[in-house]
Amino acid sequence: MIEFEAEGSVALITMNRPEARNAINGTMSSGLEDAIDRLEADDSLWLGILTHTGPVFSAGADLKAIAEKRFRELSTARGGFGGIVLRERTKPLIAAVDGPALAGGTEIALTCDLRVASTAARFGLPEVKRSLIAAAGGLVRLPRTIPLAIAMEIVLTGDPISAERALALGLINELCDPGEALDAARRLAARVNANGPLAVRESRRLVLESFTQTDAESITAAGEAQMNLRTTEDFAEGPRAFIEKRPPVWKGR
Question: Which residues contact 245 (CB under 8 A, 6 or more apart)?
Answer without folding.
Answer: none
